[in-house]
Amino acid sequence: MTAEAPTKVVGKALKRREDPQLISGQGSFIDDIKLAGMLHAVVVRSPYAHARIKSINTARALARSGVVAVFTGEDMMDINPLPCAWQAAAGRIQNNLNTPRALAVGEVHFAGDAVALVVAEDRYIARDAADLVDVEYEPLGVVVDARKATEPGAPQLHENAPNNIVFEWECGDAARTDAAFSTADVVVGEEIINQRLLPTPMETRGAIGRYEPSTGEYTLWTTSQAPHVMRLLLTAFVFGIPEPKLRVISPNVGGGFGQKIFCYNDMAFTLWASKKLGGRPVKFVEDRSENYKYSTAGRDHITDVEIAGTRDGKISGLRIKTHANLGAYISTIAPGIPTTLYGRIATGVYKIPAAHCKVWGVYTNTAMVDAYRGAGRPEASYLIERMIDRFAAEIGMDPAEVRRRNFIQPEDFPYDNGMGLLPYDSGNYEPALNKALAMIGYDDFRKQQAEARAKGRYLGIGLSSYVEICGVAPSAWIGLPGEGWGAGLWESANVRVHLTGQVVVTTGSLPHGQGLETTFAQLVADELGVPYENVVVEHSDTAGTPFGYGTYGSRSAAVGGTALVKSAMKIKEKARRLAAHMLEASVDDVVFEDGKAFVKGSPDNSKSIGEIALQASVAYSLPEGMEPFLDETTYYDPPNCTFPFGTHIAIVEVDRDTGMVDLQRYVAVDDVGTVINPLIVDGQLHGGIAQGVAQALYERAVYDDNGQLVSGTLMDYAVPVASMLPSYETGRTVTPSPVNPMGVKGAGEAGTIASAQAVMNAVVDALSPFGIKHLQMPATSERVWAAMHGK
Amino acid sequence: MIPASFAYHAPQSVAEAVSLLEQHGDEAKILAGGHSLLPALKLRLSQPGVLIDISRIGELQGIHVGSSIEIGAGATYAAVAGHAGVRSGCAVLAECVEQIGDIQVRNRGTVGGALAHADPAADLPAVLLALGGSVSAQGPGGSRTIAADDLFVEMLTTALEPNEVVTKVTVPALGKGEGAAYSKLKHPASRYAIVGVAAYVKLAADGSVAAARIAVTGAGPKAERQSAAEAALVGSAGDDAAVAAAAAAAGDDMEYLGDIHASEDYRRAMVKVYTRRAVAAALSRARA
Predict the structure, then answer these.
(1) Could you tell me the pTM of the whole model?
(2) For chain A, what is the mean pLDDT?
(3) Tell me: the pLDDT tens digits for A470-496?
(4) B interface mutation test: which of A128, A291, A702, A781 has the most B CBs within 10 A?
(5) C-alpha distance from residue B268 to each of A786, B194, B218, B247, B254 (Å)
(6) Domains of chain B in sequence order
(7) A552 near A255, Cβ under 8 Å?
(8) Using one digit for the tens of pLDDT, what is the confidence trace for A189-228?
(9) B263/A716 Cβ within 8 A
(10) Do A124 and B5 count as a contact with CB atoms less than 8 A apart?
(11) Is B185 on the interface with A (CB under 8 A)?
């Protein structure tokens, strides 16, 4: 029996199968879920950024009709503070770890800190009653700036952290770097601020906790990028209950950008309150103001950076000193972001013989800071790419040429950058640069720029050649005891071929905008040789999916995807052995190709995967010792990360009179390895670039000296709309990763990691006639105007 | 983002709305498009006990173009922007409302609401001042007309009485030799004006500037006329030097506001830049 092999779908721009449901309003997000008897919780938040709680009087709130209960932090002392999953910095962080409790006890440390919980029959009543909880505060001193927080006399947040220092961390070779600087021809230094950003997922965060008194089991629905990890952390660390007693479900999740990786207090207090209230489900959903005030922010570095080199354009050293603002408490993986995911990639795409990076993690009276799209790599890439341009300007060399002279060469891979990272897997940086230069018309642009300047118009071009770390998982790095994470972040996938020939995939990865249901089905369909439509991908529920560490760090294709391809390979191998039995042939003579098994050289007499699955399910006449059913699971710990790269180029025009920056063109050439779905890769890159451009030109979280978030609404925090962004011109080179069988690298964060410095380099280039060498982000019209007019 | 509780009324006529205002006094707030009020309610910056929704009142709708242009207070920005008579008779008005917020805001926000609210960064107050327009308001004692110059008292405060409802907005239809323009530096988050300047000019037969009105919004606590800039223009040839003189004179006697997006100094400088742009555009239209 023969059948046409299904068309191969890997590499095809299939539309996302998730979308019809989501774009027609049929998705089910946390706030869409309504359970019988459900109660609603609203948090009473501190208006002060730092204060002692003198008293909390809940009487007026409790008297409000419809209020079921009001809880304070003292009530919840039977559960532990939230855990921090990053414990390194030479053991020191263990001693001064201050993670949030479900509700604050004794003292609040930032404006928005959770002080009490009102639980009521509906959300309106709960919100009204929150205003009736009387809290008496004794205000304390406030510090919001990471560098000032470490200075003598600064207000102290936590007794166990003198000078508000969480840790001191370093990587690279300090002595060698100092030596390189002492002998360098050219040294340029700059203070570079990577401003705090608010991730702003379209859906805010939330949780519904339900306790089942008859079984003692809990269920948590929550907006999480990592439900299995939430189950582990909440049971083992917060509640101290057996892990199977909690089921965690992520419903449709409306964007995460890292903010939804972490363990939050609402997960704990909804579960706790449901138990306290006899099992009535308790729902909490943030409003936008709460999301901005309480949920994690990103970036917030103050850095002194120096670069050393020769007059002929060779970089000889890089020295970085960064104060990283971690906020008032330590979020789940916060210390790992400005350390291992930052310093270790600080040298970027360049062979820099001596580099050193020192980081101070600092407590301040602000919301917690943790991973935000790119997480450490955008900060690193911004530094090196800005400094390459600073260096190029200093020695009077074209910035493209400086990049070329220092690129790691194709023959250098696998490349050890000397910063304590696993070796870069593969790369070929110059073709991506050349392609981007050709697309933008670099040589012509310089002529246009000169002509425009003569007419009083200020154009600028900015390059960004980047490399980043995807597939954040390998135990060989992330699992190293001294590295801080304490566990390899392997990923899992189960593939089953049912009796009907339908394929069901379950994974520990989960989509919240990445289109994984589509790309994962593409991978499995091709691997098994079945129609794409016959593959279903199930995810996001700890009941029914194998343990996995979740979706972040651009890891779902490289790690989760590999796990499922490996499971499909195991399925094929079993199918081949069963087919040999069915064909009465020797196993060694049978091959499996394009969805069917046959004796080598006789493809006309074959058994399709459907026929084999039927036989395996019916389980009649199986080979000796073979178990029924085609069902294979893989837990995949990759040997290395993957390292996508590319060059982005921006062209801007700056208005002399107003300082307005017009981003006129944006070219992005990215090498993300093998592309599974070009439409989805482009979508990821477009969105990523938008977030990087947003950092360069628009977005900035601002606290005043009292610790109030001044940019606390979308009327003040400038998330760009489509009309504020250009139409991207994208190109690709393809350098497959040797790390995984598909050759994929990852695309989820590359756009964000590459883009801010392309735009800022262009702005500074445009401003060079005014003697401007550096400008801090965002390049608002006022900043640019002030720079031009010497204000 | 949950407002405090309030009572809700949806009167069918202006008279009924006025009577509800009378009845509820300070407790009551008029709800039109809601694009300023609802965010304030949700942030609990405003907690009125009674909302009087005037969006269903038919007599507040409609746009009539004759020797002047009369716009019902309940007309949305989108209705104004899309009105052929407005576009031909008073293009600056369409140009202004097209720059407000985004499509969703323009489909809900109303002309009367914006003027009655008098947000210091709203666009329309500057244009109404430059056009020498007026609003009509109805209260318990009947109707009256308030000239634009008398309308804006201070930040978020107008000459309207608490028991008055804006019923219509009137601006002149511009004729030959007249031109007006609105030029705006947009706030990157809210799209309100960091600085917005509206300019109106009327040319004499010899091409000199016979009349000029220039108004600034966004920069200070309220929209206001720029008499020094106007004086620099009137009687001039309307040439580059005159435009520059007007720009240089603009904004010197104003109170300024500063925030994280734009300092007072920057706003002061931008008032001059946008005055130049608006005046130049208005002159060019007047000559067309």
Answers:
(1) 0.96
(2) 96
(3) 998 899 888 887 777 778 899 999 999
(4) A781
(5) 13, 11, 11, 11, 9
(6) 7-53 (3.30.43.10), 59-172 (3.30.465.10), 178-287 (3.30.390.50)
(7) no
(8) 999 999 999 999 999 999 999 999 999 999 999 999 999 9
(9) no
(10) yes
(11) yes
